[in-house]
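Box 3.1 A note on notation
Throughout this textbook, protein chains are presented in two layers. The first layer is the amino acid sequence; the second is a token string describing backbone geometry. Keep the layers aligned when reading.
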Amino acid sequence: MDPTPTLALPAASAHDLSPWALFLMADPIVKGVMLLLVVASVICWAIIFEKWGTLRRLGRESRALARMAADERPPTAPPDQPGLPAAALRAGLPEWRQGQGARETDGEYRARLDAAMRKAVAREVKRAEPGLSFLATTGSVAPFIGLFGTVWGIMRSFVGIAASNDTSLAVVAPGIAEALFATAIGLVAAIPAVIAYNRILAALGALRGEALSAASDLAARLARASALTEARGPRQVAD
């Protein structure tokens, strides 16, 4: 009896199509695209974690500024350290000590205090923005960079097909797989960057609004305190 014939495995199964193998098999240009996207993704995640910590800190400082605005005690001299409450006091207390001008209405005096404190708070919040442009750029450009690597890899595969005169799947599959891997890496870099950019931008805008509102409340309280103590001599600021 003849032995049972065995089915020959497709030649494609001999290829290792793991991500690392696809990277090693890729054309030098495609490898450069992949490395560029991986580096961009790592930078994006570093920015995301840094902004997450910054947003938590700004949230605490915004709540501290709101509590300061609601406190009826005399304002505390600003500490020599960064932060929203200190920035607001450093800008507002000199204007408060200067007092209301002889030709300045109550509304103008309050507006001067409010403008000085809001400007300082906005400047402090703006320091949290660097890095967001990189997230936006990566989110919009990374898919196209990955697509460039894919197009280049597919072109290289077709050149190989033409040179070998073999259109079997075993010849086509590895080259196309490594080419599509570049697009996959581009999407892996772009999707978190876009989501993080939108979430961080929205959270930062909300925090900016809360901090500016608290600064306005503090300016209004200082203006009221100034009106009540105008006849009591120079203002005293607690140390």
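The chain has one domain: 25-71+78-228. The first helix runs from residue 19 to 25.
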